[in-house]
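WARN no homologs supplied; continuing
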Amino acid sequence: MPKGYWIARVDVRDLERYKDYVAAGKPAFEKYGAKFLARGGQFVELEGKARTRNVVIEFPSLQHAVDCYNSPEYQVAAKIRHEVADAEMVVVEGI
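OK structure emitted
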């Protein structure tokens, strides 16, 4: 079964409160088997407008990735993220 991946591009407006988002999201990520492959760090802008933070999270399957996002546990974290950051997020199926 192909793995699923969250790809998120984020501009954080409040770094201190973003830490609350990270902490609140942890139970959902653990429950759905998330593995962080990239979480911020250095990047090179090649095309288009980059955001300041880029995140790639691997899940056991596409369905796990979608279920994690839609879970009550993650939605608590998402509410915090919406207050402190601007983001685009997609879920993609691996090969």
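Residues 15-31 form the longest helix (17 residues).
OK
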